[in-house]
């Protein structure tokens, strides 16, 4: 296992429990799905009452990255697209799920969905991750 994967002092904005301004995401794995949840507070908004889209993209990115990390695959996001389908109200519990779509040559093609409490889609992302040495 890489040193990075074992490093308990990492300060990842999205996942480190030690980052004072971080999102402190926690992940669970079920079959081929990596899942996290997040409730945006007022400090996470862009438009009044609506979660900032850049932050939503950060979370989608992270949940895809964690799918790979959990399998000890070190890879960085090389490209990512987010489709914002519905606004995310402040205070609504989001469920974010990622999965591998394909492993083509050096690239991992990933996708992720952010779901609102009623199961409707808030946002969908696709991304290409490139393996890196850590
Ligand atoms: C405790 C820890 C917790 C773990 C905590 C986990 C934290 C996760 C964090 C979330 C994830 C992130 O945000 S990661 C951070 C954001 N991402 C980054 O900073 C990445 C910055 N970019 C890079 O470092 C680089 O560009 C790489 C590594 C992506 C690729 O560089 P490279 O390895 O030198 O590769 P390069 O020569 O450019 O390209 C190799 C081949 O791939 C192709 N290629 C390159 N990019 C693409 C692309 N987007 N789509 C298709 N093809 C591409 C090229 O054309 C080339 O084809 P050919 O000529 O071979 O045919």
Automatic annotation (TrEMBL):
Entry's Gene Ontology molecular function annotations: hydrolase activity
Family designation: Belongs to the THEM4/THEM5 thioesterase family.
GO biological process: fatty acid metabolic process
GO cellular component: cytoplasm; membrane
Topology within the bilayer: Peripheral membrane protein
InterPro entries noted in UniProt: HotDog_dom_sf, THEM4/THEM5_acyl-CoA_thioest, Thioestr_dom
UniProt keyword annotation of Cytoplasm present: yes
Catalytic activity: decanoyl-CoA + H2O = decanoate + CoA + H(+); octanoyl-CoA + H2O = octanoate + CoA + H(+); hexadecanoyl-CoA + H2O = hexadecanoate + CoA + H(+); tetradecanoyl-CoA + H2O = tetradecanoate + CoA + H(+)
The enzyme's E.C. designation: 3.1.2.2
Matching PANTHER family: ACYL-COENZYME A THIOESTERASE THEM4
Domain spans labelled Thioesterase: 48-120
Localization per record: Cell projection, Ruffle membrane; Cytoplasm; Membrane
Keywords (A to Z) from UniProt: Apoptosis, Cell membrane, Cell projection, Cytoplasm, Fatty acid metabolism, Hydrolase, Lipid metabolism, Membrane, Transit peptide
Enzyme's top EC category: hydrolase
Alphabetized Pfam families for the sequence: 4HBT (PF03061)
Protein name: Acyl-coenzyme A thioesterase THEM4
Domain of life: Bacteria
